Amino acid sequence: MVSDSQLTDDEFMRYSRHLLLEEVGEQGQLKLKQGSVLIVGLGGLGSPAVQYLAAAGVGTLWLADFDHIEVSNLQRQTLYDMKSLKHSKAETARIKLQNLNPEVEVIAINQKMDEQNLAAFVAEVDLVLDCTDNILIRQQLNAACYQAGKPLLVGAAIRFEGQLLALDPKQDHGCYRCLYGTDIGERLNCSNSGVIGPVVGTIGMLQALEAIKFFTQTGSVPWGELKLFDAKNHSWHGLRVPKDPACPVCGS
Questions:
Q1: Which among 25, 60, 162, 166 is least buried, having the fewest CB atoms inside 10 angstroms?
Q2: What's the pLDDT at 142?
Q3: Bridge pairing between strands 127-130 and 36-40
Q4: Where is the THIF-type NAD/FAD binding fold domain (predicted)?
Q5: pLDDT for 252
Q6: Nearest to 131 by CA among 71, 213, 52, 56
Q7: By the 8 A CB rule, do 153 and 129 touch?
Q8: In the prediction, which pLDDT does 1 show?
Q9: What average pLDDT does the segment 108-119 reach?
Q10: Options 2.60.40.2950, 3.50.50.60, 3.40.50.720, 2.130.10.10; which CATH number does 35-240 get?
């Protein structure tokens, strides 16, 4: 059995296009193989993100979602099909990703994430992807990542607009709590406002891209920056997230 410190012959074939890249190469691929990611939410954002992470050879993927697949999901949640209806998202995703790449370990978490269990799951991984659409869970996930010192890639999309936010507790920038405060009242989401499918796909793929860059140390992840995507005009805007000194999550 080949250890995580080596690539198998099959892996050399599978990841040959990565290995051709000077910025990745064998060492970068090994870092991906040794990496672990928790993906919370397997909907429009999580679907493309997990497919690209599995295809890239990230060693261990923890897939968290307690929901079941409905026909209205299929407009944007590209991991599923008509045969998936009424089945668990987490377990369906696990099976599909294992079929895509049996070299990676995929763990399905078919339960709701909350303050009671988030800390334990976050502690297991190197990186977390927030692919949810619930403001309360986002705040709890942000707090759990900062408490554990784990980097967090947050994605969001609605209508024709997308957001990407990269957070690293070890760096001097604000967190999700600094940006959005504690308002956990009713917010607009895909269910009540709609969304164009490729917008969530774009943001989900970018979460996967930044995760791959994080593990391979390629380029620079935009830590502490909120990236705003306007699909109607195909334009991007960015802003730094300042740290709130009084923030109970990341403040001093």
A1: 25
A2: 97
A3: parallel
A4: 15-249
A5: 74
A6: 52
A7: yes
A8: 39
A9: 92
A10: 3.40.50.720
Cα separation of 38 and 49, whole Å?
Answer: 11
226 has a pLDDT exceeding 80: yes
Cα dihedral value 122, 245, 177, 215, nearest 10: -40
Across the range 128-153, mean pLDDT stands at: 95
Q: Can 178 be counted among the known catalytic residues?
A: no
DSSP per residue over 160-187, as a string?
A: TEEEEEEE-TTSSS--HHHHHTT--S--
Catalytic, out of 131, 145, 178, 190: 190
Q: Where are the domains of the chain?
A: 35-240
Please name the amino acid found at residue 90.
A
Q: Using an 8 Å Cβ cutoff, are 214 and 128 in contact?
A: no
Confidence check: pLDDT of 246 > 80:
yes
User: Is pLDDT above 70 for 128?
Assistant: yes
Label the pairing between strands 127-130 and 152-158: parallel
Block residue for tokens 């705040």: 139
DSSP for 73-107, please give it.
GGGT-TT--GGGTTSBHHHHHHHHHHHH-TTSEEE
Bridge partner list, 29: none
Class of residue 198 by CB neighbours under 10 A (exposed 0-12, middle 13-18, buried 19+): middle
